[in-house]
Amino acid sequence: MRRSKSSLTLGLTLACAAVPFSLAVRAQAQTFTVLHTFGGGLVDGEYPGGGLVEDPTGNIFGATQEGGAANAGTIFKIDSKGHESLLYSFTGGADGYFPTSTLLLNTNGEMYGVTGFGGDLNCGYSGCGVVFAVDSVGALRVLHTFHFQDGDGPCTFFVCGALVEDPDGNLYGTTDGGGNAMFYGTAFSVSSAGEEQTLYNFCTQADCVDGYGSGNLTRDAAGNLYGVAFEGGVYGLGLLFKIDSSGAYSVLHNFGEGTDGASPWGAPYIDAVGNLYGTTFYGGDLSCESGRGCGIVYKVGANGVETTLHQFHGGTDGGFPYGGLTRDGQGNFYGTTSGGTVTGDYGTAFRLDLKGRETVLHHFKAATDGVYPQAGLLLDARGNLYGTTSGLDAFNYGTVFKIAP
Amino acid sequence: MKTSRFQITLGLAFTAAFTFSLAVRAQAQTLTTLYDFGSERDATNPGGLIRDAGGNFYGNSVYGGTRGEGTVFQLSPPSEAGGNWTETILYSFQGGSDGAQPFGPLSMDKNGNLYGVTAGGGNQDEVCYSNGCGTVFEISPPADPGGTWTERLLYRFSSSGGWGPAQGVILDSRGNLYGTTLNGGRDGQNAGTIFRLTPTNGTWVAATLYSFGIYDKAGYSAGPLKLDAAGNLYGATGTSGIANAGGSVFRLSPPSKSGAQWTLTILFTPLFQGTSSAWVTPPILMGSDGAIYGTTYYGGNGNGIVYKLNPPASPGGQWEQTILYAFPSALHGNPNGGVVGDPKTNVLYGTTIGGDGTVFQLTPPTQSGDQWTYTLLHAFTNTGDGWAPDGVVPDGSGNLYGLTDWGGTSTYGTFFELTK
Cβ contact (<8 Å) for A272 and B382? Predict the structure, then answer.
């Protein structure tokens, strides 16, 4: 197995340095509100698939993996007054079943997403999923139907961030299965006319050093795509990859060495100079979760150097983030953790400042406010944060929440 | 430890000599990393840099030190030209009932005592979450050179008043300390306070001078304070619960009669500019021309501005805002630390945090009404030069000194010099 010189050096640096130990601080004045609690059944969604998107008039849109008329998932809308309605109920047939990503809103008001199943019902057990477009009044069209060789089950490991779009209207995303390596998934593009192209087949290199399992992509202005793999890589604990504008695949960082982060899922955030920021599900503080670690926030610089910006400790500060990060102009990052190591810890919404100080904006604790947020947060122009909790049968089918500044 | 003859805070000393008459052409500057933070038990993620008259610098670090709860450190120049700078940890916070996570600018009094705040530690009050309600501390120099500096907690905040101090304290000529908190205050608001600590018979008595409200026009989330000769306090808030409002620049005036209320006057409220927290918590600069200078994270082209607030022509009139510079792109945008003025060159300096961050210079126009000239002095790339700079301090000879939050050989920040 190859070892990356850069990550070896980095691991030593991290191991020797005094890693900041921090307890989270409490937010000031923030107001947490549950905008909607999913009721499930035929008339409402169940289990949000991904996060939220906001249109210019303040309507919020998202998807649920189940619920709705055919219990095959829904697209929902919450208007600026907080009223929720279903925009579309999937039938589970050719239109897909089990939508699993945050929606992408384009300037025409059309939204794009993926389903993990449905579409070609002869593919896999219950379909290999679709890429769909839905407009603001709920008219849905399928842009692409996956048939396994071109990918299977986008975002079925965990919920995903949104597809990304280039100026020509091409969409980019990932699948968790299928492709020519049989099981390990693909990175794909779909044109506005529905022409699909496989950009990369994961785990086509020996020992899966090229990774697999990815929660969608990030695109820079030059047309390069960036993503993370949850598994595979040099240490088997995931990696950060780049597919450049010519289609060449390269690994930018292998996670999992020493106290480095491990098992990233959410697509990285990219800044104006090409630094990549994100979360890992495991890794970091190895006294947490029986040596697996409770996750970190990382930066991989444009120069390839990785820095641990924050370690989660699995207590009141949360642990096990899946989702990607959102950033404000003050340099603060926002995200969610999906849980903790203590019974009754159902995750957090957090802010991380540039010194690595974490502020817990909300600590999910009970049936009334939701459990286990998995997706990243939406930050609107007024500083409001919006997010979803994934839900658990015993409590509810998930919630949509707002945190006002 | 040498006793400094410096009066009050460094920031005020610089601004006292601040005038606008000369324009100086920008010159190429060279960045040198003087110290790398973050080796074993060292300070990590440093900030709050100040300079004494002897050329020593002081700062605090959110993390690091013997307990990982943060430090106050000194950076001393080499005894011979070309030598290394020396970092000394003056105090490692212990957490718990001691302070934890010092944050914001330090202040120094005429005897060389350092004052600051910790965001955590102190009273472990349930309301203040797991991290304590925060403290105000003093670090005193040793009687003999080479001795140990002494920490004293002057005040432990509790949730019955303001708590969670924001960014340092300032001193007045009578030894009172003033600062802001982010939490506590008015019932049900948790929007923070402006507080004063008065030395009284060997202890410090706290008073809440003002309590912010979420839906007040003055906004909340106040940053560091400045003081004028008449005893008025000035500062800025970063956000507001009112739709289309983004905080304010305010003045808090002492009462004419002892025991009466302090009066808050809003000097300026920005138009909401389509992005959150349009206004600011970074420190403001009080110019000797009577104007207030500062930065916003957003506004302008969405990437932040450097602004000037001209005082009203007649008492009680409106303050007038001028945008000195609007950052054109996110690449070198999002100023994060206000501006500082060089008393000799009349130039403004500041830092941004877009990308890996920059140090910039704004040179005043030679003729009134002309544009200010922006010059990029350094764009950080985390190739030994660190990233995420946290403001700069001019030495009065045209050199700038600053800290980065991250980067350097040990990952956890750098101390840098920009020379002509």
Answer: no
Q: Using the Cα atoms of residue B166, residue B224, residue B52 and residue B112 in order, give the sign of their dihedral.
A: negative
ipTM of the complex: 0.86
Distance from C-alpha of A380 to C-alpha of A377, rounded to nearest angstrom? 10
Q: Which pLDDT score, from 0 to 100, does residue B28 have?
A: 57
Q: Do B64 and A20 touch (CB under 8 A)?
A: yes
Burial B377-387 (b: 16+ CB within 10 A, else e): bbbbbbeebbb
Contact B47 A355 (CB under 8 A): yes
Average pLDDT over residues B296-305: 84
More confident residue, B24 or A218: A218
Asked if B133 contacts B164 with a C-beta cutoff of 8 angstroms, the reply is yes
pTM, full prediction: 0.89
Q: Are B276 and A380 a contacting pair at CB < 8 A? A: yes
Chain B touched by A221 (CB under 8 Å): no
Burial class (CB in 10 A: 0-12, 13-18, 19+), B160: exposed
Select from B129, B243, B297 the Cβ nearest to the Cβ of A329: B297
Distance from the A299 Cα atom to the nearest Cα atom in chain B, whole angstroms: 11
Instruction: List chain B residues with CB under 8 Å of A28.
Output: 164, 182-183, 190-192, 220-221
**Short-list A218, B227, A236, CA closest to A228:** A218
Q: Mean pLDDT in chain A? A: 90
Separation between Cα atoms, residue A361 and residue A354, nearest integer Å: 16
pLDDT at B19: 32
Q: Give per-residue pLDDT as tens, A319-354.
A: 999 999 999 888 899 999 998 888 788 999 999 999
Tell me which residue in A275, A330, A405 faces B336 most closely, judged by beta carbons. Answer: A330
pLDDT of A7 above 70: no
- For testing contact with chain B, the best of A13, A19, A23, A28 (most B CBs within 10 A): A28
A26 touches chain B (CB under 8 A): yes
Identify all chain B residues contacting A29, using CB atoms and an 8 Å cutoff. Answer: 183, 189-192, 214, 220-221, 241
